[in-house]
Amino acid sequence: MVENLHPAFLTMAHEMKNPLCLMKATLQLMQLDCPLEFSSKIHLLLSEVDRMNGLLSDLLDLKKAEKAMLQPLCLAKIMEEMPSLFEGMALEKDLELCLDVQRKIPLILGDEQRLKQMLMNLIKNAFEASYPGGKVFLSVCCKDPDWVEIQVADTGIGLSEMEQMELFRPFFTTKSYGTGLGLAIVQQIIWAHGGEISVQSRPNEGSLFTVLLPVERYGSTLPCN
């Protein structure tokens, strides 16, 4: 996946961000002092600049995700931050984020920032797939002594079998917006941690994403919560 992206292409993606930032700043200045009939056109151009910036950022994140700075980490503490981070989005979309953290979760070897990025991508997708008044479920447990299990579930629109087969392919998306790189980045982060991700879903019955991450075996294996 990432290895198929030529290094020159990634360098170009990085270099393109600077002129895009200059374009955005110039357009914003023009918008302050332009005739009303041009304002909507400038707004459209700004939206396209933001879209391109988002695509380039996701491409660069996809490359970064294959590398992780691993250290003993308490996953439960990261999980417990998520309801606060998504409080505003939950209110906006009339959704509830339900958290279930099993006691005595063992430490894992992980990169805190990458794992936060992975969790936030999965939760954001679950929110976007859910109907108003619904719930998103986030849990972590240790059913197997070698693995910590994270699950993100929603009761939203669900996925067809064909969509599930394509879900982690770069640029594939079921949305009318976005870059189609979010779940590819999620998968790359999990692989960088020696983990696995799977999905179970049916149309109109919601989706369940399960992430398995290996337990830390070389240092302290005391529970972190």
Topology:
Elements: H1 7-32, H2 36-64, E1 71-73, H3 75-85, H4 87-93, E2 96-101, E3 108-110, H5 112-129, E4 135-144, E5 147-154, H6 161-166, H7 182-192, E6 196-201, E7 207-214
Parallel strand pairs: 2-4
Antiparallel strand pairs: 1-3, 4-5, 5-7, 6-7
Report on this model:
This protein has helices at 7-32, 36-64, 75-85, 87-93, 112-129, 161-166, 182-192; strands spanning 71-73, 96-101, 108-110, 135-144, 147-154, 196-201, 207-214. The protein has 225 residues and is of the alpha+beta class. It has two domains: 2-64; 71-214, Heat Shock Protein 90. The strands form two sheets. The protein has a five-stranded mixed sheet with strand order 2-4-5-7-6, covered by helices on one side. It has a two-stranded antiparallel ribbon with strand order 1-3. Helix 5 (112-129) packs antiparallel against helix 7. The model has no long low-confidence stretch (mean pLDDT 84).
